[in-house]
Amino acid sequence: MAAEVAHTTTAGLDIRKTAMWAFLASELMFFGALISTFLLYRGRTNGGPDAHELFDIPFTSISSFVLLMSSLTMVLAHNAWERNDQRQLRLWLLSTAGLGMVFLGGQFFEFSTFVHEGLKLDTSPFGSSFYMLTGFHGAHVAVGVLMLSAMVIVSYRVGLTKSRGMNVELVALYWHFVDIIWIVIFTVVYLLQV
Amino acid sequence: MATIVEAPPIAPSPPAPRGGIWGWLTSVDHKKIGIMYGISAFIFFVLGGIEALVIRWQLAVPDGTLVNEEVYNQLFTMHGTTMVFLFVMPVSAAFGNYFVPIMIGARDVAFPRLNALSFWIFISGGIFISSSFFLGGFPDGAWVGYSPLSTQSEVIRMDFWAIGLLILGVASLLGAVNFITTIFTMRAPGMTLFRMPVFVWMQLVVAFLLAFSLPLVTVGLFQVILDRNFGTLFYDAATGGDPILWQHLFWLFGHPEVYILILPAMGIVSEVLPTFSRKPLFGYQFVVFAGAAIGFLGFGVWAHHMFTSGLGPVAETAFGLMTMTIAVPTGIKIFNWVGTMWGGNISFTTPMLFSIGFVAMFTIGGLSGVTHSIVPADTQQHDSYYVVAHFHYVLFGGAVFGIFAGVYYWFGKVFGRMLDETIGKWHFWLMFVGFNLTFAPMHLLGLNGMPRRIATYGDGLGWNYWNFMATIGSFIIALSILVFLINAVRSYRRGVEAGADPWDGRTLEWTTSSPPADFNFAEVPVVEAIDDFWYKKYGEDEDHLPVRLDSNPLDPSALAPDADHHVHLPSPSYYPIMLALGIVTLAYGFLWIPAGFLVMAIGLGIMLLAIFGWALEDIDHPMGDRDHEGGGNDGGDGDEEPAGVGSEGSE
């Protein structure tokens, strides 16, 4: 009880959630600049392959679907945490991390295919900006997977209860944000370019 | 009520609070961190100043031979980088750290450990960039780092610059998140947003500007680093890359950055002028909203730095108009400051002199700024000394004068002894004369065609006289800084004792002891008005003149400094400095790949250890549950890591 009271302050805001929202607002500008760079360079292929030749929309659609489903499992994890059900919480946290890793695997496969087809980091401004944008997004997913795994360990060790489990909500915010960014990337970078 | 059960300890206990150097290195106290920010910023100020003096010595006479072109490029690059990123920004962070929590009636910032991390990352980033001097030479692509100067030189200098700025950006971003959270959630009861001191408001606007603008230059800096080290083609015009993109990304950050530099100084001046006019700030709401408006409009004017890059008439017209618009909220502020002094009972103390100097000099700089919004005129002025004159009037005549106003105003609060007023006035007048002698002639030099960033100039171009005058002026500024340093050392040792409220102040920091106790307030203040402290000291007679009330509204810590007030505080922590050390080790390793891989691995190892230690640190040990103490301070967890265990027991 004490902790719950303590985290709500004079303004009625939770300090950690406020900080997370401020951080995510900043992240939004980060991805905004990356996406703008990509849009500027999308046609500058320097003789290398372009989006038409490379992108495999059905494949990327499936990996996008996998990532979106991880948002669902994250919601279920959050729900289990609210009910203080440690078993379910661990199950859904692990599912979320697992789906995130499947997405990362898909991205790895996609990158290696593109490299094989002749698009490298130093092939063209198009390639540079594509790899930078999707690479940074992948790095964000990877960090999320690390955080989820760490939470599973903590849940085993001491239990993620409501009074100390503010972190479940924070990781959920972060995870949903990374997913939403992917929706934008998938639309702008993939769907609109082929 | 549920029973509170202690969480099982799963990490070593944090260090017990102690004094000495170790106490400073592990401190999470916002006041100690503020002092460390301030002192390190002034060290960088002296370094950047020495660079400026070499530049002026070189330019004193035509065909100067003190340094060659290569060294000259390094000097002006590091002068700009140092003054912007390593002096004005951290010194604003120093004031913000020390005074924002006290002014809103809190006992610390929202995330004390994160705050310490910001400082240690800043200091390691500053040392990182400056250490390039010993490792192949300073960066030499100007503080704006335009491509191809930044991307196509083979030596690692610009890697130092780009990576160093990335590191500093992390520090500022963490600080911004911390300040936004602190100001939104940690205010004392009754301290509504529109009762906050204007200084706090300006820090809030700055925090938002940082949070929204830093990621843009971060992307640009990553692109520079990738271009230089991994063969990407972001800025390679031959293959379709576009160097103008860097200019957009840089100035999308760089113009808000200008307001990041000036708004804290505006906040300081908005505190000093009412205190020494013994009047409330004229049009408080207008000053606040004008500050917020500057923040918003500041994101829409970046391309006026790029009028000569061929944007086309539509974009140039739009950005020219926006640039004129931003003069409006700035003008509102200037009128409000003048209105504050109008009819006031003014005492010309040193902080007041610096504040008035700020208003006057900033007005001149603002007016020459408006001339840049007229595109054809700007095209003539671009890259000339006229521009140098303009931004030194806003950043030196503005920001630096405001900073010194703050130093003289608050020195007594921070160190318990007042700066000497007589020496202070010498400092002010020397600096005022030296400043104008240095930078006013640059308007003329620029309009007479002298380009900036040239290492020498020929005889017979009509530039000799004013260049020589400017050099004399710069050495007068140096003398004034020497006078200030003497004043600071002398007053710190044997200045007049400040007492809690030496200036008859208006805001909460003057209710505490000087220096404030670790916990700031023994009793969390309850606020009822703007300038709450003043209205607890003074009533009004029928002519609306202030009448001293028979009251003593000081905090108990100021009245009885030796009493034990039983306030629990966050424990010190090893991990912020350790994490910063890991980051900078990683950065050094990166510069010497492949041999540096080993160093990078060590850096990464230190970082991982620090992150895990941080997340698992039993932050309540041994001080107990400070959460039960009053509404102001909830302190504690600065971690975004998931495993923030050890904060409170479970039910």
What is the compact description of this entry?
With 194 residues, chain A is mainly α. Chain A contains seven helices and no strands.
Low-pLDDT residue intervals, each spanning 5 or more residues of chain B = 1-11, 621-651
- Supply the CATH class of chain B: Mainly Alpha
Beta-strand proportion of chain A: under 5%
Global outline of chain B: globular
**Could you state the order of secondary-structure elements of chain B as H and E?**
HHHHHHHHHHHHHHHHEEHHH
Gross geometry of chain A = elongated
Radius of gyration of chain B: 25 Å
Topology:
The complex is a heterodimer of chains A (194) and B (651).
Chain A: H1 2-7, H2 15-41, H3 51-54, H4 57-82, H5 86-116, H6 125-157, H7 166-190
Chain B: H1 20-25, H2 30-59, H3 69-103, H4 112-130, H5 157-185, H6 198-230, H7 243-277, H8 284-297, H9 313-325, H10 327-341, H11 350-372, H12 375-381, H13 385-415, H14 421-447, H15 464-494, H16 532-537, E1 538-540, E2 546-548, H17 556-559, H18 575-591, H19 597-616
Antiparallel strand pairs in B: 1-2
Helix pairs in contact in B: 2-3, 2-4, 2-15, 3-4, 3-5, 3-7, 3-13, 4-5, 4-18, 5-6, 5-18, 6-7, 6-8, 7-11, 7-13, 8-10, 10-11, 11-13, 11-14, 13-14, 14-15, 18-19
3D structure, described in words:
The complex is a heterodimer of chains A (194) and B (651). Helices cover 78% and strands 0% of the residues of chain A. Chain A has helices at 2-7, 15-41, 51-54, 57-82, 86-116, 125-157, 166-190. The longest helix of chain A is centred in the C-terminal third of the chain and has 33 residues, at 125-157. In chain A, 43% of the residues are buried. A two-stranded antiparallel ribbon of chain B has the order 1-2. In chain B, α2 (30-59) packs parallel to α4, α13 (385-415) packs antiparallel against α14 (421-447) and α14 (421-447) packs antiparallel against α15 (464-494). Mean pLDDT of chain B is 89; it is low at 1-11 and 621-651. Chain B has a single domain, classed as Cytochrome c oxidase-like, subunit I domain (Cytochrome C Oxidase, Chain A), CATH 1.20.210. Chain B is mostly helical and 651 residues long. In chain B, a hairpin with a 5-residue loop joins β1 (538-540) and β2. Chain B contains 19 helices and two strands. Classes of the chains: A mainly alpha (194), B mainly alpha (651). The interface between A and B is large, with 60 and 64 residues.
